[in-house]
């Protein structure tokens, strides 16, 4: 039996209750009956006998000391109610030593400030909430702040933009360690998208009534594309489906999603191929056809550039099928 994946939630006064809830929902809920991996989530603090106060009259009760970080596969730092809250020195030292051991570290929203306090982001790229970018640059000039990502990784340290982007990062870390199907299972339980494309720039501008109408049309186009991923899809064709010119469609699509139509299509096709590789024993050319790549060679090139692996290696790592392929008449994407 495979040992549970060990996740440490680092707790100290000032952490955000929302982020604690996200971490607990993703890794602290048993979904093994639905095929999700087994997780061992521990609430880790300098003093495991003292509740950690949070805003709103809440308190988190640690169940392990910082020494447990040496056993963790992943260490997650919640964001902060006050982004300049100093973390206790033992916390900073433990985070630094965990990274030195090669443990994956992740910070949600303002949790990046905690990692920066530990000196872990000096000379590295990081992201935080768009409204905190100037503060991060002023307080920690050694950090290369990337302003328009939902989440980013540098040297096995992950940081995420604000609030909902923390959910995106948590699900991505599940996907990275356990495969797309595991992340999708958890996302379905949380009634959220398994992944979002684009950047946080799409959330800064205020919508207008015209933008809302355009968004409805674009949502219909995205739904149409997802149902027809196995077919040749062009920007011109999608624009016609939305009732827009190709130039106007591309501009509105990028404003709404933070990414270009072609980049979005590629993301969806990679996700579709991941599902098929995990859920079926279909031959590689058929996986490529159903996901809309056209050929196994094209699919392999995109897996290499986007996932740093091959379709065959991905299947070997994450396939949960017993060997029965889907029927020829089933949907191009396993749902």
Principal-axis shape equals globular
**What order do the strands of the largest sheet run in, or round the barrel if closed?**
5-2-1-6-7-11-10
**Count of the separate structural domains:** 2
Would you list the SSEs in sequence order as H and E? Answer: EHEEEEEHEHEHEEEHHHHHHHHH
Biggest β-sheet strands, sense, barrel: 7 strands, mixed
Average pLDDT taken over every residue: 86
SS elements, strand count: 11
By helix and strand content, what is the structural category? alpha/beta
Distance between the termini: 28 Å
Instruction: Please mark out the parts with pLDDT under 50 across 5 or more consecutive residues, or reply none.
Output: 198-213, 322-335
Number of helices, counting only DSSP H or I runs of 4 residues or more: 13
Task: Provide the CATH superfamily of the largest domain.
Answer: Class I glutamine amidotransferase (GATase) domain
Radius of gyration from CA coordinates: 21 Å
* CATH class assignment of the largest domain: Alpha Beta
**Helix percent band:** 40-55%
- According to CATH, what is the topology of the largest domain? Rossmann fold
Which keywords apply here?
Arc Repressor Mutant, subunit A; Rossmann fold; two-stranded antiparallel ribbon; 2 domains; 335 residues; 12% strand; 13 helices; disordered C terminus; 44% helix; seven-stranded mixed beta sheet; alpha/beta
SSE order and pairing:
Elements: E1 5-10, H1 17-27, E2 39-45, E3 52-54, E4 58-60, E5 64-65, E6 74-77, H2 89-100, E7 104-107, H3 111-117, E8 125-126, H4 133-139, E9 144-145, E10 151-154, E11 157-160, H5 164-178, H6 180-190, H7 209-227, H8 235-242, H9 246-257, H10 261-279, H11 284-291, H12 296-307, H13 311-318
Parallel strand pairs: 1-2, 1-6, 2-5, 6-7, 7-11, 8-9
Antiparallel strand pairs: 3-4, 10-11
